[in-house]
Amino acid sequence: MANARFTADAKVKPALGLVEFVALMALMTSLVALSIDAMLPALNQIALDLVITDPQDTHLIVSLFFIGMAFGQLYFGPVSDAKGRRFTIITGLIIFGLGTVVCMFAESLTVLLVGRVIQAFGVSGPRIAALAVIRDQYKGEAMARVMSFIMMVFILVPMLAPSFGQAILFWFSWQHIFSSFLVIGLLTGIWYFSRQPETLPKNKRVPFSWKQLSISSRYILSNKMVMFYTLAMGFVFGSFLAYISASQTVFQVIYDTGELFPLYFALLAFSIGFASFINGTLVMRLGMRKLCTWAVFGWLGFTTLLLAMCLIYQGLPPLYGLVSILFAAFFCIGILFGNLNSMAMQPLGDTAGLGAAIIGSLSSMVSVPVAVFVGSFIDRTMTPIAVGFVAFGVITSLFFWFAERPQTNA
C-alpha cells in the first residue's frame, strides 16, 4: 500500500563517527538557538537605537523568530524529501544570510522584524535537514539516544550565547552580533559539505507534487500519536519560550542582576544540557515513554511549587529559590524535548523531511501564541510565567496521556 513508505526503517549507514556526527548536527541545529539567545543582552540597546517605547515590543524580536521558522519548516520539509538534504541545507543557509544582512542594516523595528522572519525562514532549512539526516540513519531509542547527545552539545550554545552577545556589545554594536551569524553560518556550511555525504539517495526521493504533499500530509496529520506528541511538545515549549523571551526582563529588570544575567541564563541552560546527558545514558534501558512520564509529572510538580512561592512572596520569590526551582523544572524540559520529538518522528520513515517540517511547524504555531499570550501579562513579577508554566503543563500532560492511550484501528 501507499502508506508503507511511512513506516520504512532507516537503511543508511552512518558515514561519520558518533562524536563528529553529534558535534556537526548539534552545530547545524544550534544556529536557531544562537540566533535567539545571542540577541538577548542586546534588546535594551536595540530598543534605544530604534526608539522602541514599549518594552514588550522587544520581546517580538525573539517570539516572531518562531513564526518564520513555522513557515520555513513547511517549505523545507518537502524540499528536503524531493531535492535531498544537502540542497536543503545550502538553500537555507543562503536565505539565513540574506535575512541576517537585512537585520544588520535595519533602522526601524519593522525592518528588523522582517529580517528576523527571513532569518528564521532560512535557518529552518539546516534544522529540518539535520533532523532528517538523523532520522535517515537512526530510529527509535537509538535516535532518542543520538538526539540526547546532540542536545547535550547543543545546549552549550544557549549557555554561552548571551555571554557571546554581551562580549560583542562590549567592544562593538548590536549589528556586529548579526555579522558573527554570517561567519558561523559559513563555517557550518563548509564543515557539513566537506564531511557529511547525502543521506537520501535519488531513488528514495519523493518528487514534489501538490497531490503527493496532500497525501503525505493527510497521513501525518491523521496519525494520532504523531499529533498528540507534537501538541504536547508545542504547549510545553510555548511556556518555556515565554521564559526565554522574558529572561532579560526577569533577570536584568525584575531582579536587577545587571551583567550577571548571562551567568544565570547559562546556569539554567546547563540544567537542560545535563538532563539531555542523563537521558542519553538511560533511554536505551528505560525507554522514552517512561522517562517522559516522569518528566511530565516533575514539570507539573516543580512549576506548581514555583506558583506557590509567587503567591507567598507577592510575585517575587527570592532569587536563589527562583533559580533552584527553575533549574529542577528545566531538567524535566531537557528530558521532554528530545524524547517527544523522537516519539513524534518514529512512525514517519522515508518522509522524515516532511514529517520534521509538519512537527516543527505545528509545534511552533502552538508555542508562539502561547509565549506571546503569557508574555503579554509579564510586568514586574514572576506570577504570569508561573501561572503559564502550570496551566500549559497541565495541557501538555493531557496530550501526552492521549498519545499514550492504545490506538484502535477504525
Give a quick summary of the entry:
With 410 residues, the protein is mainly alpha-helical. It has 17 helices and no strands.
Task: Report the average pLDDT across residues.
Answer: 82
Oligomeric nature of the chains: single chain
**Low-confidence parts:** 1-10
Sheet having the most strands: none
Global geometry? globular
Q: DSSP helix count?
A: 17
**Helical amount:** over 70%
Quote the distance from N terminus to C terminus. 17 Å
Number of strands: 0
The topology string of helices and strands comes to: HHHHHHHHHHHHHHHHH
Output the structural class: mainly alpha
Q: Please indicate the percent range of residues in DSSP E strands (runs of 2 or more).
A: under 5%
Q: C-alpha Rg, in Å?
A: 20 Å
